[in-house]
Write a structure and sequence with these properties.
Radius of gyration of chain A: 17 Å
Low-confidence stretches of chain A: 1-9, 11-19, 203-207
Structural class of chain A: alpha/beta
Number of strands of chain A: 8
Helix content of chain A: 25-40%
CATH architecture of chain A: 3-Layer(aba) Sandwich
Number of domains of chain A: 1
Largest interface: A-B, 18 and 21 residues
Largest sheet of chain B: 5 strands, parallel
Number of domains of chain B: 2
CATH topology of the largest domain in chain B: Rossmann fold
Strand content of chain B: 5-15%
Strand content of chain A: 15-25%
Mean pLDDT of chain A: 88
Helix content of chain B: 25-40%
CATH superfamily of the largest domain in chain B: Aspartate/ornithine carbamoyltransferase
Largest sheet of chain A: 5 strands, parallel
Oligomer: heterodimer
Shape of chain B: globular
Number of helices of chain B: 11
CATH class of the largest domain in chain B: Alpha Beta
Number of helices of chain A: 4
Chain lengths: 207, 323
């Protein structure tokens, strides 16, 4: 299921109207993904004034890999930061509000850092921020697991079209899109390459 | 999945999916806050026409942990004892807006009738019908076995995605009246395991030779591996004294001597083998207290796993576009 997770926030239904074949364009290549993550890692540290109390929680599946990469980058800058011990993954399936609108999802594992998330600064990490509903579910899921001191949000791509009052603290790339377009994040861990692609009938025309 | 009526309806992919979802549900049950908002606003009706302790409580707990509203209905003390039919009871529940109906009934096929008749629009979960099937029990048995035989421990989430290929399970006891045995034979077959049924000839149903399993009358031979090779797990079935209007064996003592599980028989098994019992147990008849409380026993764990498996079943039936 490379790229196309049906029903995900950021994959609006593709419009296959007559005469318009979907075109895909690369928005970020591997080097740009890497630079964006490095910048986010530094921003997270700067905002937190160091690595103290930081916990990175990725939203499966790609957010988990992004959280691990961010933690590794933070550890390169701050050797005191234990990347493995401060990274987790947070499954939001059971907290979603669209379970009856999409095909049944299989929940993914939730892993907490050994120290838990109480009084930590939790950085939620996801690949694409779209309607904000995944983040809403993640906030609810987090509150069942403990009480963090603060929760921040880091995303690789913000494609707009928010349906809830949610914004990201750290953004890899702001990507103005139409709802008819689809955004795919490919990561080496799941898809064999790092790239952000946009696909849709109008892709490339207004850029 | 629209209904869960029989394990014979499940494909390998579907069965493994239920077990995988149950693994995640079990993980949420280790947390301080065990309740999930998943089925908020949905109504689950427990329709119990037959006595039950653990299945009813287990379904009730599972539905509540997923935030569903639960209405439990037992035939005793309801209009059923005034002669109300299954149809009228079902129509009443439909009028109250049930999203899922968990039904236990003394007649084989009652859940199928409920699912096919159009009396209720909700999902139907079979919680045991007559001597036919008890699918969630078989799923929790498979879940428990997968954790121990594939995952290597009680909390082996590294078994996710796998089946029970190559494993050998001996099921001993009252197969004739057992819905648990029937459901287990189908499910273990789909999951790639071998099953050997052991019972006196009087307690084997007609047509058992067509089931995907081996049959033996000799428990010691089966446990020693002489029937289908080394044994990975033994499941004792309850002798259903309430269904035994006729004599199926000469005496309880003889049954116990030939088909009861005790410490001597368990010693015939390889060291890793597990012991299961769907409960309630007749201690001293089909199983000795020593065996039931011993190190191989997974009987208490089965009850814990039952909640996770039923949460998974409710989640899979009540989410998705067609739910």
């Amino acid at each position: 299921m490379a790229g196309a997770r049906p029903g995900d926030d950021h994959t609006a239904p593709t419009v296959h109207s007559a005469g318009l074949t979907p075109r895909s364009a690369t928005v970020l290549d591997s080097a740009e993904v890497s630079r964006a993550l490095t910048r986010i890692a530094h921003e997270v540290l700067e905002r937190n004034k160091g690595p103290r109390g930081l916990v990175l929680m990725g939203v499966p599946r790609r957010g988990t890999h992004l959280a691990r990469r961010l933690a590794e980058r933070i550890a390169q800058v701050e050797p005191a930061f234990d990347a493995e011990a401060c990274t987790g993954s947070l499954d939001v399936t059971m907290h979603r509000d669209d379970l009856r609108r999409n095909p049944t999802r299989t929940p993914e594992p939730t892993r907490l850092p050994a120290t838990g998330i109480d009084d930590a600064t939790v950085v939620l990490v996801d690949d694409v921020l779209y309607s904000g509903r995944t983040v809403r579910a993640a906030l609810d899921a987090l509150s069942d697991l403990g009480r963090p001191r603060a929760v921040r949000l880091a995303v690789l791509v913000d494609r707009g079209h928010r349906e809830l009052p949610i914004r990201a603290d750290h953004v890899g790339k702001n990507l103005p899109t139409s709802t008819a377009e689809r955004v795919f994040v490919h990561l080496a861990e799941t898809d064999g390459e790092d790239a952000v692609l946009i696909e849709g009938p109008t892709a490339g025309e207004d850029r | 999945m629209r209904h869960l009526l029989s394990t014979a309806d499940l494909s390998r992919t579907e069965a493994v999916r239920v077990l995988d979802v149950a693994e995640q549900m079990a993980a949420t049950q280790q947390r301080e806050i065990k309740k999930l908002p998943t089925l908020r606003g949905r109504t689950v009706v427990n329709l119990f026409f037959e006595d039950s302790t653990r299945t009813r409580i287990s379904f009730e707990t599972a539905a509540k942990r997923l935030s569903a509203d639960v209405i439990t209905f037992s035939a005793k003390g309801s209009s059923v004892s005034k002669g109300e039919s299954l149809k009228d009871t079902a129509l009443t529940l439909q009028a109250m807006g049930a999203d899922a109906v968990v039904i236990r009934h003394g007649s084989s096929g009652a859940p199928l009738r409920l699912a096919r008749s159009g009396w209720t629009s909700g999902a139907v979960l079979n919680a045991g019908d007559g001597t036919h099937e008890h699918p969630t029990q078989a799923l929790l048995d498979a879940f428990t076995l997968r954790r121990h035989l594939v995952g290597g421990g009680p909390a082996g989430s590294d078994a996710t995605g796998s089946d029970l290929a190559g494993k050998h399970v001996v099921v001993v006891g009252d197969v004739l009246h057992s819905r648990v045995a029937r459901s287990n034979v189908h499910l273990l077959h789909v999951l790639g395991a071998r099953t050997t049924l052991v019972a006196p000839p009087t307690l084997l149903p007609i047509g058992v030779e067509t089931w995907p399993c081996a049959v033996s009358y000799d428990l010691d031979a089966a446990l020693a591996g002489d029937v289908q090779g080394p044994v990975d797990a033994v499941m004792a079935l309850r002798v259903q004294l309430e269904r035994m209007d006729a004599a199926y064996f000469p005496s309880a003592r003889e049954y116990s001597r030939r088909y009861g599980l005790d410490a001597r028989r368990l010693a015939l098994l390889p060291p890793h083998a597990s012991l299961l019992h769907p409960g309630p147990m007749n201690r001293g008849l089909e199983i000795t207290a020593e065996a039931a409380d011993g190190a191989r026993s997974r009987i208490v764990e089965q009850v814990t796993n039952g909640v996770a498996v039923r949460m998974a079943a409710l989640y899979l039936l009540l989410s998705g576009e067609d739910a």
